[in-house]
Amino acid sequence: MSLLNQLHQFTLEHKFRNKGPLCVALVMTRTAGESGLPLDPDTLLTNQGGQVKGLGRSAVQKILASHGIKRVLAHEGARTSRGSISKMRVYVQWMNQQETLGVIDLEVVEKFWIKEVEKFFSGKPFKLKYDTSKSTREVIRDILNQAFERQKKSEGTMYAGAVLQHLIGAKLDCALEENQVTHHGFSTSDSQSGRAGDFVIGDVAIHVTTAPGEAVLARCKDNLESGQRPMIVTLATRIAALQQIAEDMKIADRVDFYDVEQFVSLNLFEFAKFKPENRKAALKDVIDRYNTIIDQHETDASLRIELL
């Protein structure tokens, strides 16, 4: 696994995306560059042992300034954060391990963290205003439209696909008993991981996609041959063409096709027990679960949704 892949994995596993952990990573990386590896985490504490030595606003801003960044990442530089010591220890341990393996390049590592800081500064969540005058389908459509709009401005970042996948995952979590659904990062494809679908529940393999075509239907065919029931959740505008391709492949009558707006909105009515006073709470439950999935499985915090 490459150094950058190791960094991505570390960031996801140890939740190094918010300003506090990012400050720790920047200062400890620069410290390693100046003092050399390995580092002893016990020597990186203040005399009282309650703070990380050298961690403060000025140190963080000096590093950012060397990369042309003038914005303030954290006014205290994470110095007063209780979690900073544990973050420092786990990160120093990771750097020491990479040094032992002979694969660490601290310049590459620092540039990685700078990119993460830039992502943090630009990572504004999607905004969702609950409007009782709009249909529930329109609420779901609004989220996806925002994702597609951001995707147009950020070439190469598939925001809409990630939002769609994790929104379906959140809906499934809310509909089923706890721990029945396994979640994965959006960039981990079915073919890479060996999964039968984005979600596999019982004998059902659920494929979630904004751009369905022959590839997803080929996976559905594999599902059928393995005794599973394939289901595709996609955009309403893509279903007719997809069904035609499935007809040509002679599997149209064996695959379930759902448009995402209907797939999620019907459940929202059911979660609310069809009572108007419960609808916003039902939507909030799904969005809260969605944000938890983002925190656990994605490194881009801008995928979160803020319910207004």
What do you see in this structure?
It is a single chain. With 308 residues, the chain is an alpha/beta fold. 54% of the residues lie in helices and 8% in strands. It has a four-stranded mixed β-sheet. Strands 1-6 form a two-stranded parallel ribbon. Helix 9 links the parallel strand 3 and strand 4 (229-234). Helix 2 packs across helix 4, helix 7 (159-175) runs parallel beside helix 11 and helix 7 (159-175) packs across helix 12 (279-297). It is elongated and about 70 Å long. The protein starts with a helix and ends with a strand.
Based on the model shown, name its key terms.
alpha/beta; four-stranded mixed β-sheet; 54% helix; 308 residues; two-stranded parallel ribbon
Q: Based on Cα principal axes, name the global outline.
A: elongated
The helix content, as a percent range, equals 40-55%
| Average of the residue pLDDT scores | 91
As a whole number of angstroms, the C-alpha radius of gyration is 23 Å
Q: How far is it from the N-terminal to the C-terminal residue, by CA?
A: 41 Å
- Number of folding domains? 2
Helix tally equals 12
Poorly predicted runs are none
Largest sheet: 4 strands, mixed
Strand pairing plus helix content: what structural class? alpha/beta
- Main-sheet strand order equals 2-3-4-5
H-E string: HHHHHEHHHEEHEHEHHE
Binned strand content: 5-15%
The tally of strands reads 6
